[in-house]
């Protein structure tokens, strides 16, 4: 073998290693974008043959800028994060407890000192598309700019017009309390480089206008993946497992892929639409916690055509099973309290259920009071982690539905961790397909996260 | 207008659909036998029946009742089990202050509707949601057993 051919081999070898490293880097560290699963060619909006998927639905197209902005602000669910419990809308200050410390959402009312009253159009576009604040500091991806980056400029400006039409609220939220190195905002520049494509939405030429509208609603505005897609170690969405479900702030956001048993593949279109628009579908359960909030503040306000578009889009997401979840049990539990609970369950759970829960939820799990209170068939009682059942017991539920207010009292301050664990396990054993074993320590941990 | 079937009569009420049935009964229709205790389905004082099933009327939106027949304490003596329960209640002098007792009688009657011969565990499970601050629980248990035995 000659010297030069040897050198060639080494060079080829090095090149191959570099290629493998780069490919592995993009596959494992960066991963696919949220819409890569769809394949096909994307085109500029002007070049797309169907209707423009951005903006408001046609029936609202003639409304003034502020009204259109309101629709889009609701679709993007800005209010949920930028409002504290019982606080003034958009005045900020809601705490987000992360493993790295606590973040507080900013005030986005037009107050000139504590809000965004002095922001120009360019300032807001930069924040929403690039995650860079007006003063040049980097925003944390708790603000879902890697999703909002897909928003059309016109939609961002309509949202701005709406926000600026609201009363200014003077409110300076607390400063973030993040530990080093997470308090180094400049590091987010690296994160953004890796995970924020800084691109506007481009329709998929091979998909229907309805699918593209659904994609725009779910990815750019609704940012569904921010709760329903697991994250990688750098806290970016791992779209290899797109919509396969994960845990956010102690609540489990369930699998919304097309998987038959553990996702929403077995739901029909009417059920999906009903869940999105009312937070409830007969036999499928009731939204609670953060999803209830997303329904009440955002999804319930969308048009019927937009609900249909989201459903069409959801249907196209590849099925991924959640191995720890059973297929939900559809049959109600027996009416007699003595029947229907497997042996070996902490008897305190049944006692608590009899006193505090059976009056509304009934021993069958089918509530005579309100369909919203029916447990049978719901995902939470069919989740052997019992996380969401425990959360609902701790925090109760408050739904602002179109039909009126619906409440379940919170039991967090009435019962001990041991009692709540026993009750949650009893509920899952009685109404679900697979028993749970949540512990008092886990309940204490859920309390700490509140 | 919402039409309700209460103790066998049809009543039309002009109220919002999310008003709890308890408010309609007490404040609109004057049926004050049903009591208000907690308002959050935790005490049982407001218990009524929908098609024989006990429900907490304080959290029951009146607009969701539809065709289901409502029975309140004013009408419970018209049902066979309700009559037995009331007689046993009188015979054993269950009542102390009485505030919780409308709800206790409604829950006890509903228990006999599904479990004609309840044992202690059945009684505990069915009655645990009805709180009595006077502590008449022992007499309630006895009276339910006596009513079950009576013909
Ligand atoms: S008033 Fe309805 S249960 Fe207490
Ligand atoms: S008799 Fe007084 S509260 Fe029960």
TrEMBL record, chain B:
<dbReference type="GO" id="GO:0051537">
    <property type="term" value="F:2 iron, 2 sulfur cluster binding"/>
</dbReference>
<dbReference type="InterPro" id="IPR006058">
    <property type="entry name" value="2Fe2S_fd_BS"/>
</dbReference>
<dbReference type="InterPro" id="IPR001041">
    <property type="entry name" value="2Fe-2S_ferredoxin-type"/>
</dbReference>
<keyword id="KW-0408">Iron</keyword>
<keyword id="KW-0479">Metal-binding</keyword>
<keyword id="KW-0560">Oxidoreductase</keyword>
<dbReference type="InterPro" id="IPR012675">
    <property type="entry name" value="Beta-grasp_dom_sf"/>
</dbReference>
<dbReference type="Pfam" id="PF00111">
    <property type="entry name" value="Fer2"/>
</dbReference>
<dbReference type="InterPro" id="IPR036884">
    <property type="entry name" value="2Fe-2S-bd_dom_sf"/>
</dbReference>
<feature type="domain" description="2Fe-2S ferredoxin-type">
    <location>
        <begin position="1"/>
        <end position="76"/>
    </location>
</feature>
<protein>
    <submittedName>
        <fullName>(2Fe-2S)-binding protein</fullName>
    </submittedName>
</protein>
<dbReference type="GO" id="GO:0046872">
    <property type="term" value="F:metal ion binding"/>
</dbReference>
<dbReference type="InterPro" id="IPR002888">
    <property type="entry name" value="2Fe-2S-bd"/>
</dbReference>
<dbReference type="GO" id="GO:0016491">
    <property type="term" value="F:oxidoreductase activity"/>
</dbReference>
<dbReference type="InterPro" id="IPR036010">
    <property type="entry name" value="2Fe-2S_ferredoxin-like_sf"/>
</dbReference>
<keyword id="KW-0001">2Fe-2S</keyword>
<dbReference type="Pfam" id="PF01799">
    <property type="entry name" value="Fer2_2"/>
</dbReference>
<dbReference type="InterPro" id="IPR051452">
    <property type="entry name" value="Diverse_Oxidoreductases"/>
</dbReference>
<keyword id="KW-0411">Iron-sulfur</keyword>
């Amino acid at each position: 073998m000659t010297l030069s051919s040897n050198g060639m081999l080494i060079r080829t070898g090095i090149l191959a290693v570099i290629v493998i490293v780069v490919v592995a880097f993009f596959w494992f560290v960066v991963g696919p974008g949220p819409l890569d699963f769809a394949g096909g060619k994307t085109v500029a909006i002007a070049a797309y043959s169907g209707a423009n998927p951005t903006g408001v639905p046609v029936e609202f197209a003639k409304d003034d800028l502020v009204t259109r902005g309101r629709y889009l602000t609701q679709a993007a669910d800005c209010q949920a994060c930028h409002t504290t419990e019982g606080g003034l809308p958009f005045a900020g200050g809601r705490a987000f407890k992360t493993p790295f410390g606590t973040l507080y959402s900013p005030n986005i009312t037009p107050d000139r000192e504590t809000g965004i009253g002095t922001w120009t159009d360019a300032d807001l576009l930069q924040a929403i598309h690039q995650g860079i604040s007006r003063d040049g500091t980097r925003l944390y991806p708790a603000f879902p700019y890697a999703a909002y980056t897909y928003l059309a400029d016109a939609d961002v400006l309509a949202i701005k017009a709406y926000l600026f039409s609201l009363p200014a609220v003077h409110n300076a939220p607390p400063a973030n309390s993040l530990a080093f190195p997470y308090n180094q905002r400049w590091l987010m520049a690296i994160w953004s480089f890796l995970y924020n494509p800084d691109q506007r939405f481009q329709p998929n030429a091979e998909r229907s206008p309805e699918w593209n509208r659904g994609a725009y609603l779910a990815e750019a505005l609704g940012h569904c993946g921010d709760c329903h897609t697991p994250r990688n170690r750098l806290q970016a969405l791992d779209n290899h497992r797109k919509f396969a479900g994960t845990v956010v702030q102690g609540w489990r956001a369930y699998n919304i892929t097309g998987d038959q048993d553990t996702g929403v593949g077995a739901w029909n279109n009417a059920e999906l639409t009903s869940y999105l628009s009312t937070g409830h579908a007969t036999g499928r359960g009731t939204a609670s916690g953060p999803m209830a909030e997303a329904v009440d503040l955002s999804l319930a306000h969308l048009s019927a055509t937009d609900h249909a578009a989201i459903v069409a889009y959801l249907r196209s997401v590849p099925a991924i099973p959640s191995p720890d979840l059973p297929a939900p049990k559809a049959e109600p539990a027996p009416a007699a309290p003595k029947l229907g609970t497997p042996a070996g369950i902490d008897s305190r759970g049944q006692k608590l259920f009899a006193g505090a829960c059976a009056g509304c939820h009934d021993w069958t799990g089918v509530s005579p009071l309100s369909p919203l209170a029916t447990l049978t068939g719901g995902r939470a009682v069919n989740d052997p982690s019992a996380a969401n059942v425990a959360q609902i017991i701790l925090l109760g539920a408050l739904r602002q539905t179109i039909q009126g207010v619906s409440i379940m009292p919170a039991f967090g301050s009435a019962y001990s961790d041991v009692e709540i664990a026993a009750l949650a396990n009893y509920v899952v054993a009685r109404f679900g397909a697979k028993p749970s074993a949540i512990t008092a320590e886990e309940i204490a941990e859920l309390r700490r996260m509140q | 207008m919402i039409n309700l079937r209460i103790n066998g009569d049809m009543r039309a009420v002009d109220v919002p659909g999310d008003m709890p049935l308890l408010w309609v009964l007490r404040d609109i229709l004057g049926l004050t036998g049903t009591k208000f205790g907690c308002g959050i389905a935790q005490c049982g004082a407001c218990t009524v029946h929908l098609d024989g099933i006990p429900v907490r009327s304080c959290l029951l939106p009146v607009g969701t009742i539809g065709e289901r027949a409502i029975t309140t304490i004013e009408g419970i003596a018209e049902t066979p089990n309700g009559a037995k329960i009331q007689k046993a209640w009188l015979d054993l002098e269950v009542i102390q202050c009485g505030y919780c007792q409308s709800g206790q009688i409604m829950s006890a009657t509903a228990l006999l509707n599904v479990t004609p011969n309840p044992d202690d565990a059945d009684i505990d499970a069915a009655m645990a949601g009805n709180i009595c601050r006077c502590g008449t629980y022992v007499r309630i248990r006895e009276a339910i057993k006596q009513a079950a035995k009576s013909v």
